[in-house]
């Protein structure tokens, strides 16, 4: 049986050679079938990896939040027919905060070998740079959008961090970053530490950890910038 490769991509507009190992290019060259979140951006990424790649000879299957989960098995048809296949996320590593995880789960159920490949992860890179607890942490994804619910969720994460000594990691849609930050500053105690990590691995990268009291004196401009947030209350 063929293999399912989890192929990482960049976290933004940067040269793949800066963050993606060379062996990934070799793997990509050997594949014809790809499961992707967005065909257009996946084609562009593959062309940046190898300008000589024949994009039109490749077959793409689009898997995103609109995909009918009852149809997942069709994504594995190439693998079951003996063709190595790659999964490419919109940013970072497939299967982490990514719909590709559903296909990976099904691959294990069908005894298909899953091969994760090394690449950038905003979760791990921000945790490494935060100065927070890297032995006990939780990535909780997106918080609720309504203001009241979101503030309650933030307070709950702060309590959990204090009682379990656990770093809490979460994200937001880039155009809602400012609102999220406002809620964090309103909901959290002065001494709680907050790490803001934006544009990770890009030239405009910004990573800084301060107490909530310190952040209240001034915030970075994060509107429409990919960012990730880490919270820890000692």
TrEMBL record:
GO terms for molecular function: methyltransferase activity. InterPro entries: 4pyrrol_Methylase_sf (IPR035996), 4pyrrole_Mease_sub1 (IPR014777), 4pyrrole_Mease_sub2 (IPR014776), rRNA_ssu_MeTfrase_I (IPR008189). The keyword Methyltransferase applies. It comes from the Bacteria. The keyword Methyltransferase applies. Gene3D superfamilies: Cobalt-precorrin-4 Transmethylase, Domain 1, Methyltransferase, Cobalt-precorrin-4 Transmethylase, Domain 2. GO terms for biological process: methylation. Keywords: Methyltransferase, Transferase. PANTHER family: RIBOSOMAL RNA SMALL SUBUNIT METHYLTRANSFERASE I (PTHR46111), SAM-DEPENDENT METHYLTRANSFERASE (PTHR46111:SF2). This is S-adenosylmethionine-dependent methyltransferase.
């Amino acid at each position: 049986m063929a293999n399912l490769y989890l192929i990482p991509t960049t976290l933004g507009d940067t040269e793949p050679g800066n963050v993606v190992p060379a062996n990934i290019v070799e793997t990509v060259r050997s594949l014809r079938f790809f499961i992707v979140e967005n065909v257009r951006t996946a084609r562009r990424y593959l062309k940046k990896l190898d300008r000589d790649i024949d994009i039109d000879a490749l077959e793409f299957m689009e898997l995103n939040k609109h995909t009918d989960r009852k149809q997942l098995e069709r994504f594995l048809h190439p693998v079951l027919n003996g063709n190595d296949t790659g999964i490419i996320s919109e940013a970072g590593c497939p299967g982490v905060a990514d719909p590709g995880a559903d296909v990976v789960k099904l691959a294990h159920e069908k005894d298909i070998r899953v091969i994760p490949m090394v690449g950038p992860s905003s979760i791990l890179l921000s945790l490494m740079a935060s100065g927070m607890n890297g032995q006990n942490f939780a990535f909780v994804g997106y918080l609720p959008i309504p203001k009241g619910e979101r503030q309650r969720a933030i307070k709950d994460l702060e309590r959990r961090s204090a009682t379990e000594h656990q770093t809490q990691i979460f994200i937001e849609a880039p155009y809602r970053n400012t609102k999220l930050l406002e809620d964090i500053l309103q909901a959290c105690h002065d001494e709680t530490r907050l790490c803001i990590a934006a544009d990770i691995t890009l030239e405009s990268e910004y990573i800084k950890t301060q107490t909530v009291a310190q952040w209240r004196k001034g915030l970075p401009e994060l509107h429409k910038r990919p960012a990730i947030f880490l919270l820890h209350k000692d």
